[in-house]
Amino acid sequence: MTVEVGTKTEGKVTGITNFGAFVDLGEGQSGMVHISEVADGYVKDIHDVLTVGDTVKVLVLSEKDHKIALSIKQASDKPKPKFHSSHRSHDRNDRKPQQHKPESFDDMMSGYMKESEDRLSTLKKNTEGKRGGRGGRRS
């Protein structure tokens, strides 16, 4: 039996490397799950998520030259959000949406200039009185 791209199947983890895990699919076939396809979030060490001998549900991503690419995170039946939302956005759903007026270029530029002048004056104030600072007075 050959595995078809897009099918979900179960397999057993037979080996773990620092870049992924090898999964035995049965009937002499095995594939690899890249570390980026192990879990929804960032995985620093794959050993924190998988161990040899684990039975996992995988989705067949591709098959080329008898090399089978698998995904554990895409095989889960959890619905994928269509957009990333922050934790606060759920609180705002009950409220009336705020009208955000886009700033004009001149408004943004004047805000930038004000902020830049404030930072520059703070920098000058902190360096002028010190020895060896730029533009420092020496007596």
TrEMBL record:
Coiled coil: none annotated. SMART domains: S1 (SM00316). Residues 91-104, 114-131 have a biased composition (Basic and acidic residues). It comes from the Bacteria. InterPro entries: NA-bd_OB-fold, Ribos_protein_bS1-like, S1_domain. Residues 6-73 form the S1 motif domain. One of its GO terms (biological process) is translation. GO terms for molecular function: mRNA binding; structural constituent of ribosome. Pfam families: S1. Residues 81-90 have a biased composition (Basic residues). This is S1 motif domain-containing protein. The lineage of its organism: Bacteria, Bacillati, Bacillota, Bacilli, Lactobacillales.
